[in-house]
Amino acid sequence: MGKLNIIGTAERKIQCNAMHIYLTFSAGGITSAKASETVMQNCDSFLTMLKEKQIDISHIFLENLHTERSYSKKEEYRSERKIRLDFAFDMSLLNQFDFWIQNAQSDILLHTEFYISNLAEIRKELLKEAVEDSRKKAEMLADTMNQKITGFEEVIMDRNFRENTLIDAVPAFACARDEFRGKSVSNELKAPEQTESERIEVVWNIA
């Protein structure tokens, strides 16, 4: 009876199915109170518009809020308020947010992050595929020695293995479709892809 230490791997290229939209509102003022007041008004104005567009603002998260002295000669203080919105990937909705920001009467920065909502489940599937890859390799090697796999002795996880918490994608809220959303050619753009992989070592018994 012998043993074979065989590394199995699995890899997939997966399209992101969810997105975080970050909006940062900023304003300056001669006092910290004035800067803070202005940025709050700008944020409230934009959130009011979103409510009018049937977006449930109770699902919007505050990410950051701060006021500090400004390095600009034009203002003494600078205040920022950053919020996060979670949606299933929707390119036309992302374009709509861009359009709303273009038409806002305040300084708003938009930043997006795309992700795979069910990454934990996908990693479980990749681990199974990696074990199966190891088994097939072991069977092939055992066959060359006129032996067979009788079971496994040990599974050695890759040192870079990560435990993942399942994150559910947030469905895009019902939202009135402005004319702009139907006009942009970029509405047809697909979500970005990312490559996920797993690697596992299995000690197989052969006889």
Question: Could you characterize what this model shows?
Answer:
The protein contains 4 helices and 7 strands; from the N terminus they run ββαββαβαβαβ. The chain is α+β, with helices and mostly antiparallel strands and 207 residues long. The protein is elongated and about 85 Å long. The chain starts with a strand and ends with a strand.
**Counted beta strands:** 7
- List the total number of helices: 4
Largest sheet entry: 4 strands, antiparallel
What is the terminal separation in angstroms? 5 Å
Pick out the low-confidence regions. none
Derived structural class: alpha+beta
Outline:
31% of the residues lie in helices and 38% in strands. It is an alpha+beta fold and 207 residues long. β3 (61-69) and β4 (77-88) form a beta hairpin.
